Amino acid sequence: MAITFLERLSSDASANELPTLNTAASYTLVEAAIHRAQDRLSKDNFVPWKFHARNADFEPAANASKINIRNVTIQQQGFDSAAILKPLAGEVNERYTLSITTAGSVAITAVSSIGILRALETFTQLFYRHSSNAGVYCPGAPVNIIDAPKFSYRGFNMDVARNWYPPSFILHTIDVLAWNKFNLLHLHVTDAQSWPLDIPALPLLSQKGAYRTGLSYSRQQLAEIQEYGMYRGVEVFMEIDMPGHTSSIALAYPDLITGYNILPDWSTYAAEPPSGSLKLNSSAVYAFLQTLWEDLLPRVEPYSAYFHTGGDEVNANVYKLDETVRSNASAVLEPLLQAFIDFNHGYVRAAGMTPMVWEEMLLQRNLTLGQDVVVQAWQSDDAVAQIVARGHKAIGGNYNYWVRVFRSPPS
Question: What's the rounded Cα separation, in Å, for the pair 258 and 267?
């Protein structure tokens, strides 16, 4: 099968530059996608038994004459922007066309390299393995497809703090998202239950906060996960939830957390056990955050346009126990939360990323958020309308719709 790639390089890349991660050249992404498509066509073994009635004769005869795919022409019709590797939602045109003729010619066109990735995913999904191992076949030719996403943000939120998953499983999840043309993977990477993310400048966080030694993501593993997603058109971004959902920090730095693991009355101070929140008016907390952001943000920025700073389920009562606050009154807490958010988002913006928060920061705490801040709704669909009415881009992620992900036990 011959493949011709008629490319237009990124407008920011010289025609003489080698394709590297830093040049954002379109052929870097497309060449890798071509190799994946060839590999899947040669190795995938999906026979569509479930699509047909029992004992149905749905396959072509194994010894029937064949028309082979003789050439695949891929044409990128536009220039990739400098943000092609980590675009904001809607920043890249993902539209593509795909045709397969009965003579065995395939043509793919797209404005962007990401559009070509989407087309190649569709192309491989048009073929099935013959049950006799006689090769793969496409039952639908001739094929003419014009496809484009309805939603610019098509995301999956994966909680790897409450439920730790090995890097290999996250990579598999990225594969599944790419097959289904999702474009963002939101890693909820820390929470009250565990801190499974290595921060070299704050090594005790994962050494003491992970469920056990080895159940944390190293600097190298995190980069590999994000790069793997980038090559598949799935942008992987992080969430460090705060100031609530942070009690795992107390295992390493107890002086930063108020109301840690109060029993049996944890529900007075937290949405779930163990209780504990970052202190709101503590210079030590701000010094900790500065160290955290200066370590983490430069590492994730090459792969992410977004960074999520959390903000859900902040319990007011716990701040009656905070010696730097001693109050649960909104008039006291909201200015402190405003300063907290402004501090964190200042670092996110300085790193070149767009901040995200959960809906409570806007709709319940009435904080003033920058117009660039994306607000994620989770408690109701009505919250999406309220967020948009307040002038912010909204992500709809109603908690009533979720999937439980199972994996085989480690060997």
Answer: 14
